[in-house]
């Protein structure tokens, strides 16, 4: 189980430490966060299979953070809560939680629920690669290749491309892209335009006439799957001046 990373987002330091210790003893890798801001950053850095999330956090509502996590479509969510009314449980599950555990709870029950969610996640895991013709997006190594040649993308460019590609041609607004692709909350949607421009220079056959990442008027951007399967990539994006393949940065690294 050492390859399975679990993130704990819990405001109570004693409980957070206790849960982390038991999960580590059970063989899991553990990443911890005390609030939503840190929780977002840890999520992008570690890409956990499961997030253990408290419903009440120091800097915001865990239910809202749960909704954000659910849009990522990358991790199961186990919500912990002192809110025990039926309406609270329903709200947590509707926000995207895969399971809801009421405080206080027994550690053996907690570990059993974790085991079940990890098993389900492995069965329905995100594919290791997204392939569109010669373009391959490696979700494990966080690398992009065209015909086995590496493309030099920054961590944020990779994240943006990944989110667009996972949408499978569905247009995404700038606000949606900021929410799904950025590790920290950003208020300026035009940040997306700057990164799209940079990404187009690296993956578009003709950046002046973009066809892979299309602008959708009054909406945002979409990834053109059909064009991605057919168009070649400019060689300038594949190798450096010495002809050596450049190693791409990992998503989430700062």
Describe what you observe in this structure.
The protein has helices at residues 13-25, 36-46, 62-72, 86-94, 107-123, 155-166, 174-181, 190-203, 225-230, and strands at 5-9, 29-33, 50-54, 56-57, 60-61, 76-81, 99-102, 129-132, 135-138, 143-146, 149-150, 172-173, 213-216, 220-223. The strands form four sheets. Strands 2-1-3-6-7 form a five-stranded parallel β-sheet, sandwiched between helices. Helix 6 packs across helix 8 (190-203). It has nine helices and 14 strands. 40% of the residues lie in helices and 21% in strands. The chain is elongated, with a radius of gyration of 20 Å. The protein has two domains: 5-123, Response regulator (Rossmann fold, 3-Layer(aba) Sandwich), CATH 3.40.50.2300; 129-237, Winged helix-like DNA-binding domain superfamily/Winged helix DNA-binding domain (Arc Repressor Mutant, subunit A), CATH 1.10.10.10. It is of the alpha/beta class and 254 residues long. Strand 4 and strand 5 form a beta hairpin.
């Amino acid at each position: 189980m050492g390859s399975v990373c679990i993130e704990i987002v819990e405001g109570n330091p004693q409980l957070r430490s206790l849960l982390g210790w038991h999960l580590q003893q059970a063989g899991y890798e553990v990443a911890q966060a005390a609030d939503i801001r840190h929780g977002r950053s840890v999520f992008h850095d570690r890409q956990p299979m499961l997030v253990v999330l408290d419903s009440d956090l120091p800097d915001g509502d865990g239910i809202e953070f749960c909704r954000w996590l659910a849009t990522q479509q990358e991790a199961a969510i186990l919500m912990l809560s002192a809110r025990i009314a039926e309406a609270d449980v329903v709200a947590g599950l509707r926000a995207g939680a895969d399971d809801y555990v009421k405080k206080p709870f027994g550690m053996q029950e907690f570990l059993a629920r974790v085991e079940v969610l990890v098993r389900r996640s492995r069965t329905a895991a995100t594919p290791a690669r997204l392939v569109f013709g010669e373009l391959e997006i490696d979700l494990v190594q966080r690398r992009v290749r065209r015909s086995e040649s590496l493309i030099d993308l920054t961590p944020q460019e990779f994240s943006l491309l990944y989110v667009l590609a996972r949408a499978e041609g569905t247009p995404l607004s700038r606000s949606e892209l900021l929410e799904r692709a950025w590790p920290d909350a950003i208020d300026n949607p035009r940040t997306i335009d700057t990164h799209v421009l940079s990404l187009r220079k690296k993956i578009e056959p003709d950046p002046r006439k973009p066809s892979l990442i299309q602008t959708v008027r009054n909406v945002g951007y979409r990834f053109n799957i059909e064009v991605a399967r057919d168009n070649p990539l400019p060689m300038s994006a594949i190798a450096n001046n010495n002809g050596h393949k450049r190693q791409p940065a990992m998503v989430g690294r700062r």
